[in-house]
Design a protein that fits this description.
Elements (H helix, E strand, L loop, with lengths): L1 H10 L17 E5 L5 H16 L3 E5 L4 H13 L7 E5 L3 H4 L12 H5 L3 H6 L1 E2 L2 E2 L2 E7 L1 E5 H6 L8 H17 L6 E4 L6 H13 L17 H13 L13 H9 L3 E6 L2 H6 L10 E4 L14 E8 L6 H11 L2 H11 L12 H6 L1 H5 L1 H5 L6 H4 L3 H16 L5 H15 L5
Parallel strand pairs: 1-2, 1-3, 8-9
Antiparallel strand pairs: 3-11, 4-5, 6-11, 7-9, 7-10
Helix pairs in contact: 9-10, 9-19, 19-20
Bound molecules: alpha-D-glucopyranose.
The site of alpha-D-glucopyranose (GLC) has 13 residues, from helix 9 and strand 11.
């Protein structure tokens, strides 16, 4: 089986469980891993290292870059009760949506092993007292900038989003006038998917406009600060950001920035290692800072992202699968992934590790950004989170693309969310 089924998963097709023949791969495991940046390679290397010590081969199944597409695929696969994939790499926003399909890992890991990870992530992954996934790497949105360009044009790092836009406009105009006609001021994730939810929540939080749905379940998104934040972002489209940004995900933004064609980029930490690789045209020219405040009395921000490892309830080899998770989420493996790929550890002690900090100096400078990142409202909305997020990113996308004003988009969104809110209130 599994070959065909796994290929189907890869291709994003839905017929997954049909070809499963029990026992066909009794001696091998399958893990689904992301493939953004260096993720796939690092997962393959980690899995191979575990195989070498356990003697159990591991198939690494790659998944679509869009976390929203990945969720749809996982839902199809898990709903069919298929044991094709033993270990799932799951987004920090999914324990509530997918948790019923995963084993409780609290007994398989010692209190010390669990306690080494950030408490907030362990709490996030705990549903009704069951630990549904072990933290693997954490994420927070950060602002990348071209140190060389800011310096050449006499600018300091921006102290606010409005300043970012002004600096971006200035450098974009001057670079284009100097013949650098592909230069863009700012690139980010503007496609209608989960990544836009992250970007837009960051704008709203920077303006002090709340968390879309508050931890007590109230819909807060239609407020003047949130409107101001989204209106500001809409003003970037076609000015400092190309219209094409409306279809960018992480890798498209990184592609433009890394090829030297953008002054600023919002992305996750992984872009650091790739941008500074020897073959990168901008190697050594990159700065990273927290996303700045916006509006009158806003705050610096960054949305909490990150990925965790869960064991499928339908796995035929749950014990081996748990051992693979233990290995991949370990101190040594998280250290390797941090040094090679700038994937943020979930183990606090690694932020004091010299080699990790040498490879990623901003892990130290932005420690507070990583540990205090603003969470999307996935805990409070539970199984409805993806519907909430879909409504949110669609509303923001309409405002960014000029189909609605920020006011109208958020007022309409509020009505839709209040209807959905019956599911969690
Ligand atoms: C990153 C984050 C994840 C988020 C996704 C959105 O992968 O780690 O939490 O949902 O980006 O694109």
């Amino acid at each position: 089986m599994a070959k065909g089924a796994r290929t189907a998963l890869l291709a994003g097709l839905s017929v997954i469980a049909a070809s499963w023949a029990p026992g066909a791969f009794a001696q091998s495991l399958a893990i689904s891993c992301g493939a953004v940046g260096m993720e796939l390679r690092l997962c393959q290397e980690g899995a191979a290292a575990w195989s070498a010590q356990s003697g159990i081969p591991v198939d690494v199944v790659s998944t679509p870059n869009s976390t929203s597409e990945r969720l749809a695929l996982y839902q199809q696969l898990l709903a069919s009760g298929s044991g094709d994939i033993d270990v799932f790499q799951i987004d920090v926003i999914w324990p509530g949506i997918l948790g019923t399909h995963f084993l409780d890992l609290s007994d398989a890991f010692s209190a010390d092993e669990i306690g080494a990870h950030f408490d907030a992530i362990v709490a996030n992954n705990t549903i009704d007292g069951e630990l549904k996934a072990i933290p693997w790497f954490t994420d927070a949105g950060v602002l990348y900038y071209r140190r060389d360009l800011l310096e050449a044009h006499g600018h300091d790092r921006p102290g606010s989003w409005e300043e970012m836009a002004a600096i971006a406009a200035d450098i974009q105009a001057k670079e284009r006038a100097a013949g650098n006609d592909r230069m863009q001021g700012f690139v980010f994730q503007g496609n209608a998917y989960e990544g836009l939810t992250c970007n837009a929540l960051e704008w709203i939080d920077a303006w002090g406009g709340g968390q879309i749905i508050e931890p007590d379940g109230t819909t807060s998104v239609n407020n003047p600060r949130a409107v101001a934040a989204i209106a500001e972002a809409a003003s970037w489209i076609g000015t400092i950001s190309p219209r094409g940004v409306l279809s960018y995900q992480e890798e498209e933004a990184r592609g433009v920035f890394q090829s030297g064609h953008a002054v600023f980029m919002r992305n996750w930490p992984y872009a650091w290692a790739l941008g500074n690789a020897p073959e990168s045209p901008i190697s050594g020219k990159i700065g990273v800072m927290a996303l700045p405040p916006g509006g009158e009395d806003g705050q610096a921000t960054g949305v909490l992202g990150g990925w965790n490892l869960a064991v499928s309830r339908y796995s035929n080899q749950p014990e081996a699968a748990k051992d693979l998770v233990r290995f991949l989420a370990s101190f040594e493996e998280q250290k390797r992934r941090a040094i090679v790929g700038a994937y943020n550890p979930t183990i606090a002690a690694l932020y004091e590790n010299q080699e990790v900090l040498e490879a990623n100096p901003f892990f130290g400078d932005l420690y507070d950004t990583f540990t205090n990142a603003v969470a999307r409202p996935s805990a409070v909305t539970g199984t409805r989170y993806n519907q909430v997020s879909t409504e949110f990113w669609n509303a923001v996308h309409r405002a960014l693309s000029g189909q609605a004003t920020a006011e109208a988009a958020l007022a309409d969104l509020e009505r839709r969310l209040q209807r959905l809110a019956r599911g969690w209130q």
